[in-house]
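Ticket #4471: structure output looks truncated?

Reporter: J.K.
Steps to reproduce: submitted the chain below (557 residues) through the standard prediction queue, then opened the result file.
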Amino acid sequence: MFTSKSILYIPVFKNLRCISLATAMQKNMEKTDKFYNTDALNELSKEDLVKLATNFQGKYRQVLNKNQSSNSKLEQMIKRFQPRRKRKITKKVDFETCMYRRIALKVAYLGWDYEGLQENENLDDTIERILREALRRVRLVPADRSIYFSRCGRTDKEVSAFSQVIVVKVRSLLATGPGVITANAAYPAEEEDQEEEVEEDSHELKNSNEHSFPEISVPEKNGDVEMTDEAEQSKTPEINEEDPIKIEENEYEFTGMLNRVLPAEIKVLAWAPVENEEFSARKHCLGREYRYYFHRGNADITAMNEAAKLFCGLHDFRNFGKVNVVNCVNYVRRINHFEISFCDDDKEAGPYRMCFARIIGSGFIYHQVRSMMAVLYLIGVGLEKPGIITELFNIEKHPKKPWFGLVKPHALVLFNSIYPDLKWRIVNQDAQRVLEHFQNYWGNLALKSHLTFQLLKLIENDETIAVRGEDGHTHTTYKQLACDLQRDSLLHGVNKKLLVDCYNLNKDSYKKIMDRPVGKSLEEHLEVARKKKRKIAPSNSNFKLPTMEVEATEDTS
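Returned output as attached by the reporter:
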């Protein structure tokens, strides 16, 4: 099958040049300098070959998507802070003797160019990986230890978050205080108690020499950390006793330290001490608010809003998400509030008027929000009736989910998360930097958006260019064509690719959801997992959150 000098090419994406498997091997195995020749490949089992190919595919998926031309966000961050000359470090930090602190970070990120929140060993551009490297970069955590995260909720590829909460243990200047612990408590020698958390919420350090950051000089004096001018700005000043949030003197200002390292799309908005050692960002979140933004197009927003109310309450959402028995077997969730509104009062914007769905609940299953929005959009354009929601909630009648697509992820955002007991804080100077950064970031995007919209309106109103009809004889103009499309097309151009469905979205050939093929039932998924001896999530693995009233959450959003 192979020759000793043969090169196997794997075409992964259309219109992209193929990547040599030999090149992939060399990159992937540079740690061991191990190469597979023909004999070695023939000796591998089918399982090992599949694992090898899967690893290569995942490792180079990010590069292939970018046509192998641009660096990842992680590499850009590394190069940006790589010193031109070797810095003199007066004294290295002794992470074994310093004090640590359990803190929560409120992180905001625009996830359009990222591979999701959860770290994947084959991908550089995940939010968690960049956050972990940033923590190591500013020497808040040891470079040779695993960093354990507890996060509010996972977000998929291209999904954003404005209120992602992550709990982590970092180095502290204080000897005592809320959340302050010793090095042994932060990084115990035997971490048997955290074994269950390792699989879900931690990252075992791999390739520690790869993407390593230069250390920052933080000299020590008289047992205390002597701060440089830049580091001095990253200390939290003493706040008046009358202030409702008392901020300790001489503590690091973690937001400023991290934001100087993080990429433009990821910033820490605030931090808070966490005194409860059992605190979990996922389990102790009292409510999450997601928002999905889209243009009105030709959709009936009133019909969508009325249908959205059917989602409210306690339901089994297995037909509105992805069933994965390894992580979850209980798909009952509560939606407290579901409303679709316009973003502004510009009624003359027509199909270009921006809308958003506001969804508040105690928890969500994988792909739940995007699945619900997909069904609502089909209702909005008249392809489905609102009764489809009630039908899909009837698990006894429909135990197997019919095939239907998802809306695009780039318009989805984790807008708010509720933690009444956390007292968020940030110093004025760092807060000003965050504000000015996103003001500038928005300004650049808004200018491009405005120019694009002006070009669009110019084309839509053009009556000077003759547009030849399909019969080759009749002629029209761009302006008349735009009016015809607005009147006759089911999907407006602004939402043409909003929903990626299994079937054509037109009235003549559309196939109703309840008439489509179905997948496996939950019981069948469980049976497959047992036959393959996979670990199945316990039935009580989902934390039972208290009922949250909508009124209590509206003030916090």
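Triage note (M.O.): checked the attachment and the full token line is present. The radius of gyration is 27 Å.
Status: closed, working as intended.
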